[in-house]
Each structure stands twice: as C-alpha cells, then as structure tokens.
Amino acid sequence: MNTPAESSQGGVGRVLIVLLVIGLAVWGVFGLAGAIVRARDEARMLSSRSNLKQLGIAFHNFHDTQGVLPTGLVQDRWIDGRHSWMTYLIPFVEASRLYESIDQKSAWDSPRNAEPFSTVFPAYMNPGVDSPDRTANGYGITHYSVNSNLYSRTKPIAFQDVEGGTAHTLMLGEVNTNFVAWADPDNKRDPSRGLNTVPVGFGSPYRQGTQFTLCDGSLRTLSDDIDPVVLRQLADPKARPDGEW
To answer: For the whole model, what pTM was predicted?
Structure first.
C-alpha cells in the first residue's frame, strides 16, 4: 500500500506530466500558426517579386520599342505629362484592351478617363500590403513607384543615360505608405530618402526588406538599415556604389 507521501508524490508527478503535455500542445499550436504566417508572408513576397519582375520586363520592352523610358517628357511624340509611366506600360503587361479604352488626348484625371483608371490592376498591387484598393476619388491605386532620379519632365531618358551602370541603379520598387493612383504621372519617389523611414519614400511590409527592380531587370531586396551612402549611390543613375549592398 502506498503511503500518503508516496500518493502525494505520484499526484504531483501526474500533474506535471499533464502540464507538460498541455505545454507541448500549446507550443505546437503556436509554432504551427507561426509557420503558417511565415509561409503566407513568403508567398505574398514572391507574388510581389513576380510583379516587379513583370514591370521590369515591361520597362525593357517599352524601351526596345520607343528607345526611351516611359518617364520623360517627349514633346510632339506622345509622352507629354498627361499620363503616368504605369499607363504606358499597360500594353506590355498583357492589358491592351484597357490601354485602348484610355483617352490619350485627355488628362489622366479627366472625367473621360474615370472608368479605365478606376480599374484595380493586380500587377500593380502588392498582396502583402493591407490598404484600400482605390483612392478617395475612386482611382485604382498602386503599391509600386519609380525612382524619381529616372524621371524627367524636360527630356527623354534612355538606359544609356544610366552612367553608373544598369546593374547598379534602382529603377522601381515597393512602397508601403501614401499610395497614389497608378494613373498619376507624379508616381515617383527618391530611394535615397531611406527605406520605411518617411511616408513618401520606398518601403515594404516584409521583414526581409524592400524589393526593387534594377535598371538591368534584375531584382534585389534591400534591408532597412542599408548604408545611406550606398543607398544614395544606388538611387543615382550617374553613380556606382562603392560599398556592400
């Protein structure tokens, strides 16, 4: 027969075992939930990366066709500041019908263009960003922006103007705040202002960093704590970075 002390010790042992089992179960649930969240974030990041790749290809196809980037003011041709670089890329991202429905002679925010520019265009949206899909005026937004240093209202810009090298110059990337309409000609930002630091800068919801397409079409993820000097060099079409990035 067990003594009271032995019975007490056995009871404590059973309680500890039960608590251990419960603890392992809870740990397993939280571990599984964490794994699911990580897998979901990675899938969204890959989807955004695919969008950036597609936009990079569209930039190069546009350049091959027109000889310039869709970010400059070219009088008496067709880039005249009334429409955005994203609008001009539409035919190169398999949306020719949408492009044909746009009144090119009217400004992007003209009532004539209200319907096509209210379109929410998946290729221009980052699935990892939680935001409304339209502006207060009903225009479809975008979660990507172009490097403002490649944007000119006075002259056309071509890849040969990227003196620092296309493999060392940021072309476009993710944004995480202050979203604008994809049809807005002023959809441009300066990467040198930092990543996830100012509302009108580049940034990303992903812990791994902000994803960019470089001028050569390659993709790169940059950490928020990247050396500011290197970031300024990557933003400048005339500079080549001399540090790690």
So the answer is: 0.83
φ, ψ dihedrals at 210, nearest 5°: -95, 135
Q: What are the helix (H) ranges across the chain?
A: 4-66, 85-89, 96-100, 228-235
- DSSP summary character for residue 134: B
Adjacent-strand bridge partners of 37: none
Of 87, 33, 25, 92, nearest to 57 by C-alpha is: 92
Residue 10: HSE in the Cβ half-sphere, 13 Å Cα cutoff: 6
14-69 pLDDT per residue, tens: 766 776 677 666 666 555 556 655 667 788 999 999 999 999 999 999 999 988 89
- How far apart are alpha carbons 139 and 210 in whole angstroms? 25
Contacts of 115 (CB under 8 A, 6+ apart): 101
| C-alpha–C-alpha distance, residues 30 and 28, integer Å | 6
Q: Which of 26-35, 45-54, 80-89, 218-227 has the lowest mean pLDDT?
A: 26-35
pLDDT of residue 17: 74
The rounded distance, in Å, linking the Cα atoms of 114 and 147 is: 26
Whether residue 90 contacts residue 99, with contact meaning beta carbons closer than 8 Å, is answered with yes
d(C-alpha 132, C-alpha 180), whole Å: 11
Q: Which helix (H) or strand (E) holds 147?
A: strand 144-147
Q: Say how many Å lie between the first and final Cα of the chain, rounded.
A: 73
Q: Quick one: pLDDT at residue 240?
A: 85
Distance CA 91, CA 228 (A): 36
